[in-house]
Specification:
Distance between the termini: 84 Å
Radius of gyration: 32 Å
Largest sheet: 12 strands, mixed
Number of domains: 4
Number of helices: 5
Oligomer: single chain
Shape: globular
Strand content: 25-35%
Structural class: alpha/beta
Length: 598
């Protein structure tokens, strides 16, 4: 019995021992698992923190890259350092020139000035540090080497036929259509966003015919082959039995094999937009003088080209921080005057105002001042400048204008030696208070000339048609008046235009399109005020829209006593392909290309 009791006791003890050991092992395993779990959590936290720091550093590099583009586009020095706040963390960066500089001509003929920079940024996020380094080449392209350049969405919807020659670029989306046929005779039709075959103000409207030229090395060379391919609208694809949203455009995301033979080369086959745009508008069959693609969008890696801000045309700009400028507002005179101590003012002249060799400024009381870039008074010849008023139906009535007679200014010593004339009016508002500048008798210019104003600009009659010079106008809104304009227009009265020619590049403001509210599109970017029906309006130059109008805010509307559209003979001026022939102080579109990350 003892043996049995001892045996049972022994087994019981061993069971207790095993149980205790098991509990110890289990506890150890739990401890190990908890340790591993805590370690894993710590590792995950470290990994997450490190990732966030890396993202923040890369984000700062992107911000620094944009600051370089913006500085160059706005004629300012490139900063050497800066900081940006990302997810609540301030991240500093440095910008160092690499010494690389070159002038190149790309496949579309654009002449680019390339400059290299190294950008470095270091981010600290919750105790975790990450550094990003990138080599960037910044490319500056003259804006007037584009036939059309829009900073926002570009809309082209002319009623009659319209042909566009030259490079067409939008930093936003493009909306292409026509009441008849829109022909793009170019090797460059590019959008940083998307291209659509429907109206922006009415997405259900996909009309007309759009023909785009297949890529050739030099579309300005008459010996190059000319081949066009349609960009089908919705109805045209519907008629072919091809499912689509708005025609053949960025909405056409899937391949369509119409004949079911497994390839996409049949007459009713269509590749999706990403590959199809490259395939359909590349070089013509058998072409041996290079390769390229006319149509590119965000699907193909297009990036923004930064342009000058509206502030560059301002008469005066507030200085950052509110002090350090050279001018202050004088309420008694209703104008900016030099600060009593240089560097203690609140404002400085805008870029073009400060650079102009001749500035003509209309004071609030109607008096005129003229001075050079150093602020020295300039004596204007008699009859060169007159303050008047004219009827502008779009603005709602009579507006004050400063009329500059170019034929008088041409023969005087006051004609700007550096080719830049700045003009503006104090007291300008919107509507009938917009104020404006009118250029008359400008058929011949004494020399190359750019005219810049923060107000509305009206060009009356043939401009730069005799012994043509490089010329541009840059304004809040550019308005075109024909050779027959005589200030007889009034409410309810629409005078008849006569054929007029303008040889000039233009940068002008516009209004935004809303659903049901069209802004007039490219075809109405220069504003009209007469009955032009059946009359030729000839323009050779460049059409640029980089800002919304601040003063000329009247909405676009057709007919009535506003205007009737002309026959638009509008062309890019190929003389601008040579940088030596660009108008004085031509601004740049600035893009940035990543070269290496390390």
């Amino acid at each position: 019995m003892r043996q049995n009791r001892n045996g049972n006791h022994s087994r019981s003890g061993m069971a207790l021992l095993y149980a205790a050991f098991g509990a110890f092992v289990a506890a150890g395993m739990v401890s190990v698992l908890l340790t591993l779990s805590m370690s894993s959590s710590r590792m995950a936290a470290v990994s997450e923190g490190q990732t966030q720091a890396s993202y923040a550093a890369e984000g700062a590099v992107e911000a620094a890259k944009k600051s370089v583009q913006t500085a160059i586009a706005n004629f300012a020095p490139v900063p050497t350092a800066g900081a940006v706040t990302i997810e609540g963390n301030q991240v500093g960066y440095t910008i160092t020139p690499t010494g690389f500089a070159a002038v190149t001509t790309d496949g579309s003929g654009l002449q680019r000035t390339m400059t290299g920079y190294q950008i470095s940024a270091t981010a600290n996020v919750d105790g975790h540090q990450a550094t990003a380094n990138r080599l960037v080449n910044v490319s500056s392209v003259p804006l007037f080497q584009f036939a059309v350049f829009y900073n926002n969405d570009l809309e082209i919807n002319p009623g009659p036929d319209m042909t566009l020659g030259g490079r067409v670029h939008s930093n936003g989306n493009m909306h292409l259509g026509s009441g008849s046929t829109l022909t793009v005779d170019s090797n460059y039709l590019r959008a940083v966003g998307d291209i659509y075959r429907h109206r922006k103000d009415d997405p259900n409207s996909s009309q007309g015919r759009v023909k785009i030229r297949e890529w050739v090395n030099d579309p300005f060379d008459s010996s190059e082959p000319v081949a066009f391919r349609n960009m089908h609208n919705k109805g045209q694809l519907d008629a072919l039995g091809v499912p689509n949203v708005s025609g053949y455009d960025s909405n056409f995301t899937s391949d369509y094999d119409g004949d079911g033979d497994g390839d996409y080369y049949g007459p009713n086959d269509f590749l999706g937009w990403d590959l199809g745009a490259l395939e359909y508008w590349d070089e013509p069959t058998g072409y041996t003088n290079g390769t390229g693609h006319t149509v590119l969008t965000s699907d193909h890696g297009m990036s923004e080209a930064v342009t000058p801000s509206v502030g560059s045309v301002a008469m005066f700009d507030a200085v950052p921080g509110g002090t350090g400028g050279n001018f202050v507002w004088d309420g008694s005179q209703q104008k900016y005057v030099p600060a009593s101590v240089p560097g203690t003012g609140t404002h400085d002249k805008g870029y073009y105002h400060a650079s102009a060799d001749l500035s003509i400024i209309t004071n609030d009381d109607g008096s005129i001042e003229a001075y050079d870039s150093a602020g020295n008074s300039v004596s204007l010849p008699a009859g060169a400048v007159t303050v008047k008023s004219m009827f502008d139906a779009r603005q709602g009535g009579d507006v004050q204008i400063t009329e500059i007679d170019m034929s008088v200014l041409n023969g005087s010593p006051s004609f700007p030696a550096n080719g830049l004339l700045y003009t503006g009016s104090y007291g300008a508002g919107s509507g009938v208070d917009a104020h404006g500048v009118r250029l008359v008798n400008g058929s011949e210019l004494a020399n190359a000339l750019s005219v810049v104003t923060e107000n509305s600009l009206y060009v009356q009659g043939d401009y730069n048609t005799v012994n043509k010079k490089p010329a541009s106008v840059i304004a809040d809104a550019v308005n075109l008046l024909s050779n027959s304009w005589d200030d007889s227009k009034s409410s309810g009265n629409l005078p008849r235009a006569t054929e007029t020619t303008y040889n000039m590049a233009m940068i002008t403001g516009n209004q935004d399109t809303t659903v049901g509210g069209y802004n007039g599109g490219l075809e109405n970017l220069p504003r009209f005020h007469e009955g032009w029906s059946g009359v030729d309006c000839n323009i050779s130059g460049s059409f640029v829209n980089t800002w919304l109008s601040n003063h000329a805010t009247g909405a676009w509307r057709y007919g009535g006593d506003r205007y009737k559209a002309p026959n638009r003979n509008w062309n890019y001026d190929p003389m601008f392909n040579n940088v030596a022939n660009l108008p004085p102080f031509t601004p740049m579109a600035v893009s940035a290309i990543d070269v290496a990350t390390f």
